[in-house]
Amino acid sequence: MTPIMSKSDAAALVVASRIRRGLTWAKIAEEIGAPIVWTTAALLGQHPMTQTQAQQVCRLLELGKDVAESLQLQPYRGADQAQLADPTIYRFVEALSVYGPALKELIHEEFGDGIMSAINFRVDISRRPDPDGDRVVVTFDGKFLDYRC
């Protein structure tokens, strides 16, 4: 019996096939009927896909059953240190370092004692034209979970 392919190996095959076939993340997300950011994160190893989703992606990308099997596994979530040093990712870390305490205060003021769920969560990205240069708009949409005794 052979071991199940790692999620990182499956992700590398997905990325290579996507690029070689000239497909966008948006096209893949449309094909499986899932949000683009979630789909991209799942294909990079951060979420498990259903069997149907994994099979659809592998058909589209002409990848094998071994990749589909890996895409369905529960992940170990998070980023490694090398990824955190990437300038795009680091700017998110920087933004949360600067604005995180203010956002925490504002969440507590508006909602009370609790947190924003990262499980019952949606994230979206869009482009907004601006005369000084296009703006990146990232929306975090998480359910409020109050602390209870």
UniProtKB/TrEMBL annotation:
Keywords (A to Z) from UniProt: Lyase
Catalytic activity: cyanate + hydrogencarbonate + 3 H(+) = NH4(+) + 2 CO2
EC supergroup of this enzyme: lyase
Entry's EC annotation: 4.2.1.104
Domain Cyanate lyase C-terminal: residue ranges: 78-148
Gene3D superfamilies attached to this UniProt entry: Cyanate lyase, C-terminal domain, lambda repressor-like DNA-binding domains
Cited function: Catalyzes the reaction of cyanate with bicarbonate to produce ammonia and carbon dioxide.
Record-linked NCBIfam families: cynS, PRK02866.1
Name of this chain's protein: Cyanate hydratase
Organism: Streptomyces litchfieldiae
